[in-house]
Amino acid sequence: MSSAALATAGGSDTTVIPIIRERGQREVFCGLTGIIWLHRKIQDAFFLVVGSRTCAHLIQSAAGVMIFAEPRFATAIIDERDLAGLADCNEELDRIVNQLLTRRPDIRLLFLVGSCPSEVIKLDLSRASSRLSKKFSPNVRVLNYSGSGIETTFTQGEDACLASMVPDLPAAPADAETSLMVVGSLADVVEDQFIRLFAALNIGPVRFFPPRHAADLAPVGKNTRYILAQPFLADTARALEERGATRIDAPFPLGVEGTTLWLKAVADVWGVSSGTFDAATATARERATRAVARYREELSGKRVFFFPDSQLEIPLARFLARELDVELVEVGTPFLHKQHLARELELMPKGVQLSEGQHVENQLDRCRAAKPDLVVCGLGLANPLEAEGMTTKWSIELVFTPIQGYDQAADLAELFARPLVRRMRLVA
């Protein structure tokens, strides 16, 4: 194949998973989309996109913000005067930030978010954030990261945001007790559930990153153990390890099995006995197993094709295959981080076809030839494929929806069952 290279990924010692590596036309959102869930998570932060009117329309449309709402994001519009060099972009940016912080004194953390237009005109947001942070310190910290859609996928916006926060994390004392940091944005309800489970396991202290409030930063150092809640945080993980933190290797907490193995990996580090672990998790695990089983009849034997989009594809595919008896036609992902996904790859069915990167025309050809029962893809592909008679699931919905943990396992199964039920009713 001229546009793809065939490689393999090792799961367990006896498992070899074929991978098609592709480079070509891509169909993804840009990293600005991450603002939609990040601005809800960090409750006293504000995200100021430095971009075009197109950037503003994207964020407004994706968030579904009504006209009378007071959201915690906005766009500083780069217009023709800026592009022509007739205006000093830094002076304009300073003016807008001054107006914003005067109007919104509740802001404690301000992100300057780069975009394709700001990068094209070489606007140095790093220097701007440093300058503004000194000006408004200690009341407001100003950080910057890139949400550009050039050669990225949309979940990398969260990765870039969290990585920008790592240098500000306080240093833990050398003699500090071992602490756990859960890394990746989780809905508050999911975070609360995990807090209760960790408490039942006598694991702590536990901190979540990003925090709900900008000032609630977890100390980090050589006694920090962190576990990823999302598979798309490679830059954040690297930054934490440079600060001395150690990653706990585990599958991701999607589905009953994934959640159990994720919690067990932490419990093993803390030396929790099997009996204590089973006692603390049994009720939630059994309840979730029963709830997921209701969807097995609807999904068992169904053939699913994943287009690369969110980087959640491999953990989601593992959940579908192992807990709902789904047949995986192809599992595409924008980037395959073998180290972070090693435990997931061990759990994947033998011989499943993986693809990394994107050449959308080739993938469409393979999808049409396979005629799967369900296609998981981005919004840009969903409507055309529906018009061709295929049943689709928007992959971005799986990022916006709370799906981690025991109590959300059945909700996750329902997200895949729903479009199939809808199709069945339409043709009935």
How do the strands and helices of this protein lay out in sequence?
Blueprint: E1 4-10, E2 16-23, H1 35-41, E3 45-51, H2 53-63, E4 73-77, H3 80-83, H4 89-103, E5 109-114, H5 116-120, H6 125-136, E6 141-146, H7 156-165, E7 179-183, H8 188-200, E8 206-209, E9 224-228, H9 234-242, E10 246-247, H10 255-269, H11 274-293, H12 296-299, E11 303-306, H13 313-324, E12 327-333, H14 342-347, E13 354-358, H15 360-370, E14 374-377, H16 379-387, E15 392-394, H17 397-400, H18 409-427
Parallel strand pairs: 2-13, 3-4, 3-5, 5-6, 7-8, 7-9, 9-10, 11-12, 11-14, 12-13, 14-15
Antiparallel strand pairs: 1-2
Helix pairs in contact: 7-9, 10-11, 10-13, 11-18
Measure the end-to-end span.
41 Å
| Biggest β-sheet description | 7 strands, mixed
What coarse outline follows from CA principal-axis ratios? globular
Rounded mean pLDDT is 90
* Strand order of the biggest β-sheet: 1-2-13-12-11-14-15
Radius of gyration: 22 Å
Number of strands: 15
| Uncertain stretches of 5 or more adjacent residues | none
Total of DSSP H or I helical runs spanning 4+ residues: 18
What would you say this structure looks like, in words?
With 428 residues, the chain is of the alpha/beta class. Helix content is 43%, strand content 18%. It has 18 helices and 15 strands. It has helices at 35-41, 53-63, 80-83, 89-103, 116-120, 125-136, 156-165, 188-200, 234-242, 255-269, 274-293, 296-299, 313-324, 342-347, 360-370, 379-387, 397-400, 409-427, and strands spanning 4-10, 16-23, 45-51, 73-77, 109-114, 141-146, 179-183, 206-209, 224-228, 246-247, 303-306, 327-333, 354-358, 374-377, 392-394. A seven-stranded mixed β-sheet has the order 1-2-13-12-11-14-15, with helices on both faces. It has a four-stranded parallel β-sheet with strand order 4-3-5-6. A four-stranded parallel β-sheet has the order 8-7-9-10, with helices on both faces. β9 (224-228), α9 (234-242) and β10 form a beta-alpha-beta unit. α10 crosses α13 (313-324). The longest helix has 20 residues, at 274-293. The model has no long low-confidence stretch (mean pLDDT 90).
